[in-house]
Amino acid sequence: MKIGALEAGGTKMVMGIFDEEGHLLEDKRIPTRPPAETIPEMIGFFQEKGIEKLGIGTFGPVDLRPDSPDFGTITATPKLDWRNYPLYTVLREALSVPCTFDTDVNAAALAECRLGAARGCENAVYVTVGTGIGAGICVGGKPVHGLMHPEVGHMLLKPNPRDPMPQGFCPYHESCLEGLASGPAISKRAGRDAGNLPDDDPAFTLEAEYLAQMCVNLIMVLSPEKIVIGGGVLEREFLLDRIRKETVRLLGGYIQAPEITARVDSYIVLPELYPISGLIGAWLLGRDAQ
Amino acid sequence: MKIGALEAGGTKMVMGIFDEEGHLLEDKRIPTRPPAETIPEMIGFFQEKGIEKLGIGTFGPVDLRPDSPDFGTITATPKLDWRNYPLYTVLREALSVPCTFDTDVNAAALAECRLGAARGCENAVYVTVGTGIGAGICVGGKPVHGLMHPEVGHMLLKPNPRDPMPQGFCPYHESCLEGLASGPAISKRAGRDAGNLPDDDPAFTLEAEYLAQMCVNLIMVLSPEKIVIGGGVLEREFLLDRIRKETVRLLGGYIQAPEITARVDSYIVLPELYPISGLIGAWLLGRDAQ
């Protein structure tokens, strides 16, 4: 049986064809244009391959309430062409196969939990730090939905008094994580592209501090068994170790779990399935579609 | 069948005898003294009543990992007599009945989810704001454990620049929720007992702001279907409405869920089972013990 996987992103759509064992047989990337252009191309690809199930992990926010008339719709996205677009319904009806639908980051969290860096964990968080900051969360081995879905990127933080941009740049919130610590936040603060900053730029000290505050708050709320952090910003691998040290410092010895106090190097980790955690997660979602 | 329930607190032990339908047949409160004095009295009470199962919700932190040799032990508590005390094992062995064990706040969250203010929700948070700040969380209808258990009271917040005590008073963390917003924090900031402050004291504006920051971060991480807030500080019922308004303001319109944007009065609510949410939760835990 062929299983289709779609990781729908704001800039590109990644499609994969997997077998039941999870071997990636074929994949294709296309730029994300308005639905009228993008959707027919995706439908064509999946139809041609004869998939029998489809899993979708998408950018959001999305409506995930099973009893909602808008289930599977992309809601208040800044990408206006996609706002209120019923992605799940359109693909399921066009392809006539069982479909499962979740956020891209929940799909990635599921993949890292089942097969990647958080293998064996029932409760884990996957965070991606890039143009934005998003997170997927598994509890009891399943992605968390609740009222909507996690939006960890907009958690409120305590700005460092030495931060020249303590309010951040999120249009919705003062001092939220994404506004303080996403890639564009680093660039805005530095006055030049973050990609051109040297590793010893003080921007990365602040960056590690903010991501450590995030880790602390995730630990206090969820008590995850593992925190997986990836995304473009973490391609500076030295950041990870600073985040770990700063997390332990901020916890102040309060959480007496040896996984953190003695083995933080295997507690806060990079993803193992990067950069296709989301695509593999979409395959897992598709495999379980009914 | 009689089911025993124990809500083990730092200052008092509340014991209940329930039938299978959840009727409270009898209860008893005793002060929490050292285990050598307190435990035999509790064992005597439960033995005399002929309970066939026992549920325990206890102060913490506790070890809840099912495969841990210290499962059911109270760990790093400041109450030295109880530190490393194997509460679960001692009670289960003395009473020879099936036992279930969790934190007091997870028990209360379970009770409010099944029978109280969050009835019908699978994902909800119960917070108690008093001498300390604790929270229990249900996801998928079950209490969250993870590496340890939630410790929401020590989430890091952004202090208000006009707060005369912006660092809070927690010995472990600067600017954590408990250090900024527990009952003793209000008293310390005001220089007199919080219980004697008039309702229009500015302390309560800060209090509502900090508890609203907590709500925002809970929403961003967990996306709960309901937030239940109780405890001594919330006996000032006007606080609740201020917390709701401030939460909506801080969210800045980012979360477009009508449960929050249009119906926040039924989203952030008082517990319905107060002050025995924890005891009823212990009964639920006991009923399911095997």
Notable features of this structure?
homodimer, 290 residues, alpha/beta, Nucleotidyltransferase, domain 5, 2 domains, 5-stranded mixed β-sheet, 9 helices, 19% strand, globular
Protein architecture, described:
2 copies of one chain form a homodimer. The first copy, chain A, has 290 residues and is of the alpha/beta class. The first copy, chain A, folds into 2 domains: 3-104 and 275-287, 2-Layer Sandwich (Nucleotidyltransferase, domain 5), CATH 3.30.420; 117-269, 2-Layer Sandwich (Nucleotidyltransferase, domain 5), CATH 3.30.420. In chain A, 34% of the residues lie in helices and 19% in strands. Chain A contains 9 helices and 10 strands. The first copy, chain A, has a 5-stranded mixed sheet, sandwiched between helices. In chain A, a hairpin with a 3-residue loop joins strand 6 (124-129) and strand 7 (133-139). In chain A, helix 3 (104-115) crosses helix 9 (277-287) and helix 6 packs across helix 7 (238-251). At the A-B interface, helix 6 of A face helix 6 of B.
End-to-end distance of chain A, in Å? Answer: 14 Å
CATH topology of the largest domain in chain A: Nucleotidyltransferase, domain 5
Principal-axes shape call of chain A: globular
Treating each run of at least 4 consecutive H or I residues as one helix, how many helices of chain A?
A: 9
What order do the helices and strands of chain A follow? Answer: EEEHEHEHEEEHHHEHHEH
The CATH homologous superfamily of the largest domain in chain A is termed ATPase, nucleotide binding domain
Give the rounded overall mean pLDDT of chain A. Answer: 96
Strand order of the largest sheet of chain A: 3-2-1-4-5
Annotated CATH architecture of the largest domain in chain A: 2-Layer Sandwich
Radius of gyration of chain A, Cα only, in angstroms?
19 Å
Task: List how many beta strands of chain A DSSP finds.
Answer: 10
- Count of the domains of chain A: 2
Binned strand content of chain A = 15-25%
Report on the biggest sheet of chain A: 5 strands, mixed
Give the class-level CATH name of the largest domain in chain A. Alpha Beta
Uncertain residue ranges of chain A: none
